[in-house]
Write the structure tokens for this entry.
Amino acid sequence: MKKLFLLILLSICALQGYTQNQGISYQAVILNPNVQELPGVDAQENILANSSVVIQFTIINEIDNDEYQEYHETSTDKYGMINLLIGSGIPTSNNYFTDILWDGYSKKLKVDIDFSGTGSNFLPLSVQELSYMPQPVTAETAATIQANTDAIATNTTNIQSELDITQTSAGLNADGTYTANGTTNYITTSTSVIAATEDLDAQVKTNADAIAANNTNIQSELDTTQTGTGLNADGTYSANGTTNYINTSTSVVSATEDLDAQVKTNEDAILLKADLTSPTFTGTPTLPTGAIATTQTAGNNSTAITTTAFVSDAVNTATSGNYVDLTTNQTIAGTKTFSTDVVVNGVKIGRGPGSVNGQNTAIGTSALGTGTGTRNTAIGYQSLSSYTGTSFDNNTAVGYSNSNNINSGQQNTSIGAEAQMALTTGSRSTAIGAHSLINVKGSDNTALGYAAGQIITSGSSNTFLGKGSNGNLATMTNATAIGAGSVVTASNTIQLGNASITDVKTSGTLTSGAVTYTNTDGANGQVLMTNGTGVTSWRTPAASVRDVADEFSATASQTSFTLTQTPSVYSKVKMFVNGIRVSNTGYSVTGTTLTYIPANNGGYALTLSDRIQFDFYY
């Protein structure tokens, strides 16, 4: 019976605070779990040199729950030693080493090992308490501090630049100091904000005096350009007595009122006149005298004034020509061309804002939005109603509120009420069935069936076939669910059918990776074996093997022994004399007969009562 002997020679755990890769160093010497057979006493606890192993590390928190787990595929060196960095391995779940909360509570490190190198047969190696200290500032943290320092310096420069533009006369700096501005016409001698304010007050007084001096010039300009209103520079009003002006007004207000009254009088008179363009006459208009009045023909409007009575009589008594009475049933023949979309009983029919060769189709209220892109088809209330694309977008939406949030997405197809309602910029998705892909925002998804693929939001390249077929994660990618109610649980996987499916059948062979599995059945007791090149077949396994240890008490010079079983052709019979292994050339085996050859064993002849043992299997 094999015994497992493992020894951790050295284990060093330290938080890596000053290196690029944060983690815990781990070093150990691995002993061979197999006993080395030697004459007399088997050797145990030999180092496992130059061998592939898988080491699994588990961080356990203070309440004995697994907080993080990873594994390393590695090899021992010629001394049986391994050197690993915990935190750089392959996590077995969705959390990472950096997610561990080092909150001061005790933690344990559990170590498991798989000698097969496959990662499927772990054996416990050790469990030990972890001691750790606060992590020092890392190079990454230092880099962040430096970046923030640079940003502060940059912002200070930007603030100063803004002050230079907007506060030049004040001389205010970003650090709170004051520097007088030396530019001409600014306060150049001030040494503080208070002094600058006093100097500015004095300058304002000087400017006020200059404005008063210029009053005369302003009045002269008004006398030249504003004679009609009599407006003076000091705000008073003097009526102008010239003919055709408002010469009786005593102020600007009364002049404005008099002018408004005159304008109203003129407007009333103008309203009594007919427009020159398409005038409307009341009463009985009189034709001008002359040739027209004396030669006018009844029903002729080319030279006559077309009053309402004239037009009504012409329509009611017409005996030729065509007209349509839209209040009765009609049959309209011939080709009718509309230059814009039309609305029929509240439903829009046309091609939307796009105008390139009439390549868009829009049928339904608010269908096809405001986009000017082409090759789009929207049929149904609010289908593609948010579309704003400008290119050859090739979107097709058929159904109530179908794809009603797409704005710039391309090559999307959806059929069924409220399909792909959340899609905005995603492309190349296909949804057939009401509510299918209703929440999708990613691209390259396909759903066929009512409510298929409803969970997907930002996920992409997924396929759902069947009513209610779905995934269990909104962000999954390259997942496929086939069958009504089927649910795929991970990216890059396929789910065939729902939980009620009891049998999946196919008539061909099945290929997985590099292996092709046969589609035939073997005989009873046969096992499936591969030929090493990816081809499998049914084979009859070798008979079970059993260990044998035959023991004899020798007679003097005995050379022939009869074994209890015929050794297997794959077995080597081992001979021991008084516990000492005899060379393979010191004996021969034929069937159940073993012949001892003293000449090949140092000339030793067996003596009476020598203990003889033969180990083999059959």
User: Anything to note?
Assistant: Residues 273 and 279 are 9 Å apart (CA to CA). The mean pLDDT is 81. Residues 547-617 form one domain.
